[in-house]
Amino acid sequence: MKNNTTLLRVITYVVLISTTSILINDIQEFNFEQFKSFASWSKSVNKNENWFTSKNAIMWSYYIIITALFFWRGYLIYGFTHFVSILKEIEKENYFSQKNINYFKKIGNVFITYTINVLVLQFLLSVIQGASFNFFKELKNEFTFLIPCGLAFYLLAEIFKRAKTLKEENDLTI
Amino acid sequence: MPITVNLDVMLIKRKMKSKELAQKIGITTANLSILKSGKAKAIRFSTLEAICEALECQPSDILEYKP
């Protein structure tokens, strides 16, 4: 079991590092040029005009959504860090602990919230840009596999909850 | 739980210590304490048999149903 835990820990760290490297790569490839127009727009804007106009609101929303989509990946990495906490618990031989159940639920929450939020943000972005938004096409994107993954983690949390009760009963059978 | 364990009463009757009983039936004193305090969720037939043999009594002398 110890060897398996070490192997799992190595795999988890590899996944974490690769996810972080993807994020860093995204930073590198992120088109900062689009913010140049934002900067020039903010410089050229008439300060005497009322700042809260529908045009300004759309402009602000566009940049906020783009930035949110970018940083939202960090939330996904936060979800992955829970795997390390689960492995730590397994190393202590606390297989069916309440902590593990909570971590599984948290991972499920992160995966589902991440996917839903990305879908919502992309929908808002397409509305602002005036582009068409095909929900089913977006669902086919690579990140949507996280929804079944998240549901699987919820299921795992329920299984562990049941296993915890059974273990407690077994421990208290004399 | 309406099932109560009267192990303490039987131990006094037989003038036996908990530690001695635990050694005779082959369980830890911690587990015997769980059984005596009523915190146990279940009891194995093998344990019950060993207790009855060690205390020379019937299961009904140890377990009682109080609705």
From TrEMBL, chain A:
Coiled coil: none annotated. It comes from the Bacteria. The keyword Transmembrane applies. The keyword Transmembrane applies. The chain crosses the membrane at residues 7-24, 60-87, 107-131, 143-160. Keywords: Membrane, Transmembrane, Transmembrane helix. InterPro entries: DUF2975. This is DUF2975 domain-containing protein. The lineage of its organism: Bacteria, Pseudomonadati, Bacteroidota, Flavobacteriia, Flavobacteriales.
UniProtKB/TrEMBL annotation, chain B:
InterPro entries: Cro/C1-type_HTH (IPR001387), Lambda_DNA-bd_dom_sf (IPR010982). It comes from the Bacteria. SMART domains: HTH_XRE. PROSITE patterns: HTH_CROC1. Residues 13-62 form the HTH cro/C1-type domain. One of its GO terms (molecular function) is DNA binding. This is Cro/Cl family transcriptional regulator. It comes from Aquimarina aggregata.
